[in-house]
Amino acid sequence: MTLRKPMLYLGKLLLAGLGYEVGEILGGVLVSVIGLQAPSPPPGADMNQIAAYMLYVTPLIALALAVLSENLSGGFVARWLSLALLLWLADTVSTQLEASLVSTFATRITFRVVSGGVAALVGAGVVAYLFPAPGKDASPWAAVRAFLAQRAPGGWAWRLLVAAVVFMPIYFIFGLMVLPFTRVYYENSMFGLVMPTIDQLLPILATRSLLFLLSCLPILALWRGPRRSLFWRLGLSLFLLVGFTQMLFATWMPLSVRFPHTLEILADEFVYAGALVWLLVPRRPVQS
Question: Mean pLDDT, to the nearest integer, of 10-31?
Answer without folding.
Answer: 92
